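Final report, Chapter 2: Outcomes

The project's central promise was a pipeline that accepts a single protein chain and returns its three-dimensional structure in a standardized token representation, suitable for archiving and comparison. That pipeline is now operational. To close this chapter, we reproduce one record exactly as it appears in the project archive, with the input sequence first and the structure output second.
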Amino acid sequence: MFGITIIDNNELTALNAQLKRIESKIDKLILSAGQELERDMAERDEIDNLMAKVQQNTDAVQSAQTAMQGFVEITQKLTDELNSAVAEDNSAAIKAAADALSANNDQLLAAIPPMAQAIKANTRS
């Protein structure tokens, strides 16, 4: 009347084996999910590191552009002064502008190795 079924030993053993297979599959799924999560986190870390390197590279390029723009502006100013002095046929002014242009070029040449090293340091992998 109560719906009680009696299970013999063979059926109990078969059910036990089936339960162990189900538990084994669940354990494998949990392990697989954990490994997938670890891979996702590693990929996120790699992407974050890559984005940081891109930002460093962008910063270094912008610094180099700013430095070069400053050089171009100074060189243009000195060139204008030199052309003005030539037009006025002013030897002292020509000499002063030529000396300033030469000093500026020397300053740029001296700055190139440190600037290249700084750019390389900021873009190194």
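Archive annotation: The chain is about 90% helix and 0% strand.
This record, like all others produced under the grant, will remain available to the consortium after the project formally closes.
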